[in-house]
Amino acid sequence: MVSKAADDDFLFLAEDETDSEAETQSSGEWHLLIVDDDEEIHTVTKLALSDLLVLDRKLVFHHAFSGKEALKFLVNNPYIAVILLDVVMESDDAGLKVVQQIRDELKMDEVRIVLRTGQPGYAPEESVIKEYDINDYKTKTELTRNKLVTAIISSIRSYQQIRTINQNRIGLQKIINAGANLLEQHSLHEFSEGVVTQISSLIGLHAEGVLCAQIEDDGSSSDNIYVLGAAGHYAPYIKCKLERLNNSRIIQQITTCLAERRHIFTDKDTVLYLGNIDHAAAVYIETNRPVEDFDRQLIEVFLSNISIGYENVTLFQQLKHAAYIDPLTKTPNRNEFTSLLQETRRLDPERNVAVLIDIDHFSDVNDGLGQETGNELLIAVTHRLVAQFGEIAQIGRIGADVFGLIGPEQALTPETLSGIFEMPFQCSEHSLQVNATFGFCRLRDSALHGLTILKHVYIALNRAKKHLAQNYEYYSAQMEEQMVDRLVMLRSLRSDFQKDKLQLWYQPQICLKSGNVLGMEALLRWPQPDGSFISPAVFIPLAEYSGLIIEIGDWVLQQACKQLQSLKTQGFAHLRIAVNVSMPQFRNHRFVQSVIDCVERYQVDPALLELEITESVVMDDPKIVIGALNKLKGFGIKVAIDDFGIGFSSLSYLQQLPLDRIKIDRAFIQDFDRPNGTLIAETIINLGQKLGLATIAEGIETKAQEDAVRAMGCEEVQGFMYAKPMTASDLVKFLSKS
User: Fold this and answer.
1) pTM for the complete prediction?
2) What percent of the chain has pLDDT over 70?
3) 408 and 392 in contact (C-beta within 8 Å)?
4) Whose CA is closest to 217, among 310, 304, 325?
5) Engineering a disulfide at 341: which of 167, 239, 453, 588 sits with its beta carbon 3.0 to 4.6 angstroms away?
């Protein structure tokens, strides 16, 4: 048997002194992997092939010294054209196993494999050729330099042919798929990528460094040129503006091609014009060599055949553009922004955050200065957002005055976003200073679906709008849980109200001088199946928020009037009932008339019905409230202000309100034990006396509190000391005893 050292000498035989058919000019590279456990084999193989040029390209050598090392290398380097593979390495059949894994596991069917062995008896040539997808199988003694060069040239040509066939297939498949799925969101990009892949294969390239760009909007400025399809190292720039490539030559060549509507062929690159005056595109290819006349003819035939398809795809894309792009700001609309949220959440949830920006009181700009000025403000905000965050974040307009951003959490902070609104926005002749509210959601804290993420950001935004101390909020799961609880409670409240399960209870109001009952306050109760009650402080705000309070308020008025009618028949005709009224009821244009109709329907004395309002209701919209109360007062209905002193209302409104009574809040009564604790209650009572209004103190629980308010001149009281709230039937019993 010939020794391994003797095997290696074949590379220096005299017959190998003949020249190869390689050219002298190199304009590319073929990557060759040598796999052998003998380091000397690597050296002599590289030495024998170092000056070889195949199809104008030089060889680049890579090395592996075992089958395992070769497979590891190929996983990360799939661009290898030829592998020179030793059969016997760490095991007798190591090379054959590597071939199997390359084809079956790595799915590398393009790379060409030349097997070499120093032990031909172990793996017979005929069986190996039949069973394995290889290019050649030689013993090291017969593989002289001339035969090695021949094997390499043959393998590279085979590799190139297979690559070309595959690229033709892939390119055509992309075009076919795009044509068959024109309504898919990314059809234009898939079509464009198929075009550039196909063109590159026609001229014998491997789709490396290829891109396709199209003019969007009007003009030929590079600011309006976008990368639609790309291959190789330009692939990450799909959907980006052309200048993002940061390559002045490419920008210039594409801009020139589009402006002059012609192909450009140079020694370095090829730029092809596609489409017509309405739908123009340029295909840029890094050829690094002149394109032959025959290849140019092939390209022109291909472009003429594909141009109609390109125009059709572009027309569909324009329809999609209208569906996914906001026409005013030219940024993604709600639909597209939702897709971007989902895609970013899938790719990089850890560092990115979604933000919603709500311009405060934007409707005032539209109403006061006109919609045109409002539009100019939205465009100005967009420009400032793009200038600040356009390079790092996705920006969209997803509502009338709501913008969305997706980007790195470290850059999109409450401070940086607030900075956008520090300076006024110039809109025609107006300089507008506006503020904004922000909702944040870290993508890692949200769901996978775009709509769910958007819902979470809106939850944070709505919470931020209720903040008094800050103009932003970050989403947390607890927020959604609370919202779900509120929705469940609201559904239950609506259901129980429709099933007539709500109850109206009454708490007597007492005259301090005589000790007699003067009237009652009607209090809403929501009983539960277990015998408990949900506090009105919990469900009344929920009913107000949902608008259900309008129906509930009408029902309470009807029950109160029925109760007045019933009390009259039972000998208590002089007693009044006070009913609480909320702001949504005042905003209902039918409110005043519905109260009057209710009083007339049940034929009760309007002076026995008293409407209680809080300071916050008055301050919400004084004009509406005062106007409604004046109409009701004119009909004879009494009016009381509840919880007086708790809010921050102006005393000027107190003079304008048609009041009959002031209620002193229980919070001031409970302060009597503190130093100067009686001061506010005493001031309110004196104020009532000066204005000619009756005063009633609520929350009286002890004899000391009663004595204190009597000494201050208070006329009426209400509290647990006299009676707790009770049902209608218990009220009649209480009144009978009193």
Assistant:
1) 0.53
2) 86
3) yes
4) 325
5) 453
